[in-house]
Amino acid sequence: xxxxxxxxxxxxxxxxxxxxxxxxxxxxxxxxxxxxxxxxxxxxxxxxxxxxxxxxxxxxxxxxxxxxxxxxxxxxxxxxxxxxxxxxxxxxxxxxxxxxxxxxxxxxxxxxxxxxxxxxxxxxxxxxxxxxxxxxxxxxxxxxx
Length: 145
Fold this sequence. Notes:
Layout: E1 2-8, H1 14-31, H2 41-58, E2 68-76, E3 79-86, H3 109-116, E4 119-125, E5 128-136
Antiparallel strand pairs: 1-2, 2-3, 3-5, 4-5
């Protein structure tokens, strides 16, 4: 399964990106054995996509230009992968986690994604940033997060 959607780089489309991620995750889980799957899978996947999309919107240099963000979903075996791509300036994916004791207002996006997903990678290629995230669905016979 490969699904690709392209949305305007505007904050009002964050919810649509989240809903698309949730729908893809639910379809993916249903294709496995939904009665034995990890109950938090869909929520974690949706939140991770929402955070990545929000970061892409937030760091768009010229929001008045018609910028877009592309979200690509693919699955293989019991793994669901999503890539969020934009043409913003490059960024450092190794940004340190926020100091939670100081209650920062920002900086939780990559931190949350790292906590919720099984893998996270970043690539800058031909003027495009691509953050890819993979989540494995654990069924009861192999559930050991």
